[in-house]
């Protein structure tokens, strides 16, 4: 049986806020102020952007998780692709328009 949600009697805005927290963390959090419903679109969540170090730690965690399982080859490939994408994003930097016109 599925446990009954504790916030079924709250307003629609509170339900959307809590569903946003649940979607990101997997755990309902009734005291979270991270989700804001100031827009017309449902389930808009403003949260802090993770740093590249945090993302790399998450990719490492995935690699260790899938490495511990016999059928984890697909997961290892996904973790490696994620790590590669994170490193690529980390290395990119915003350039100035003057860099485009500079003599090379």
TrEMBL record:
It comes from the Eukaryota. This is Putative tick transposon. It comes from Ixodes ricinus (Common tick).
């Amino acid at each position: 049986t599925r446990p009954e949600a504790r916030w079924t009697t709250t307003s629609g805005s509170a339900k959307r806020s809590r569903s946003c927290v649940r979607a990101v963390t997997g755990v309902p959090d009734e005291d979270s102020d991270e989700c804001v419903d100031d827009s017309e679109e449902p389930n808009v969540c403003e949260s802090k952007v993770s740093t590249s170090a945090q993302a790399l730690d998450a990719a490492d965690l995935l690699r260790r998780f899938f490495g511990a399982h016999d059928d984890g080859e697909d997961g290892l490939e996904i973790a490696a692709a994620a790590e590669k994408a994170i490193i690529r994003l980390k290395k990119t930097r915003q350039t100035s328009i003057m860099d485009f016109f500079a003599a090379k």
